[in-house]
Amino acid sequence: MQTVEVKFNTIPRLVHIQSIDHPSTLPPSKPRKQPRRCWRGVQTTFVDSNRASLSLTLIMMADGGGGGDDAFIYTGGEQVVPNDVTHVIIDRSINIIPARAFYGRKQLVAVETHDDLERIERHAFDGCHSLKGIKLIGVKVIERMAFHICTDLLDVEFGDKLDTIQEGAFDGCLSLKSIVMTSIRAIESKAFSDCLQLTDVELPKGVERIEQFAFYYCPSLRRIAIPLKADLFQLGSMDHRFTIFDACDDLTTVDLVGDEWIHKTISSLLLERWRNVMNQKIDYINQTLPNTIPSEKADEIQYWIRSVIDKLEHYKVEHNRLLKEDMTQLELALWKAKLDEKEEDSQLKLQAKRAKVDVESMRREKRIMSGASIVIKNVLPFLKLG
């Protein structure tokens, strides 16, 4: 993409022009810092000396010289990011931020991204101690150590396309306070370890794997929200235990996400005693976790998940067994009623002859219809638990 700077005599503004459709005949300028106050995306059409129509994007900004921070427009390639950069705009042509692109830029405070950004490669922002926040709306993969020791990072906004956060991606982000993900499949080892001020983590029902030490030494972590999945936690490779929340001293609360099906299943159980037991099982973890030592919290959560799933499956089997027995009893009762009806019909005929009345009218008045086939076919499937 070619760039050219143009001074307008009548407007005290500096205009940065980026060609998006047609290469300009003017030579490109070097990548440079632009004043921070800028307005992007204004499109216009110019005519060059050959009368060729150029579709251009203008970036209008106030003249420098008033002090203030600069915004560096990152376009990738061989572009060199200044060591003292403070504000960055990721150009819309960039879909991947390459490895170590902003490594060690300790004065970087803000990064403006866009929704088409798909991947942050390893160490891309490693050591950006002053970075305050970043939006990763379209990002699918955050590679290992991508935001390692971004110690001032307060806020990360994840989008609904996120799939994987690799090893140590946010390790050492000391100021990060909360994490909300609407889409994630895998959180790898030490992804959020040493996040000292992290208090709240909310994961989606689609998360499939959380690896060892994923939240190691997050001493302020109090609450996590996770789905009820037996194989969600991965065993540690060395001591074969669950280490996801080691050194998370304050972790006391576990909430379930995507739990509508659980409560629906519990409310459908035949016996009230079963329903009470299941509700107690679900509440158990938040009663015992405060008294569990940090090194065993992940094991306790894993045991609780498995026990809830196992007990629920047991009651579903018992529910369906009792339901089948009840349906058998109902079917027998209905067939008995049909046999009784035949006997009654014989008596009705005899009475009709003596009283000379309409037999069919008496039948309609007194007959008990057998509904066994209707009940079995149309009612039973709604009462069974899958």
How does this structure look, described?
It is built from six helices and 20 strands. The protein has helices at residues 260-268, 272-288, 297-355, 359-366, 372-378, 380-383; strands spanning 3-7, 13-19, 33-35, 38-47, 53-62, 70-74, 87-90, 96-97, 110-112, 119-120, 133-136, 141-142, 155-158, 164-165, 178-180, 186-187, 200-202, 209-210, 223-226, 253-256. The protein folds into three domains: 1-68, no CATH class; 87-315, Alpha-Beta Horseshoe (Leucine-rich repeat, LRR (right-handed beta-alpha superhelix)); 316-383. Strand 4 and strand 5 (53-62) form a beta hairpin. The chain is of the alpha/beta class and 386 residues long.
Short account of what is shown:
With 386 residues, the chain is of the alpha/beta class.
Key words describing this protein structure:
single chain, 386 residues, alpha/beta, Leucine-rich repeat, LRR (right-handed beta-alpha superhelix), 3 domains, 6-stranded parallel β-sheet, 4-stranded antiparallel β-sheet, 6 helices, 20 strands, 27% helix, disordered N terminus
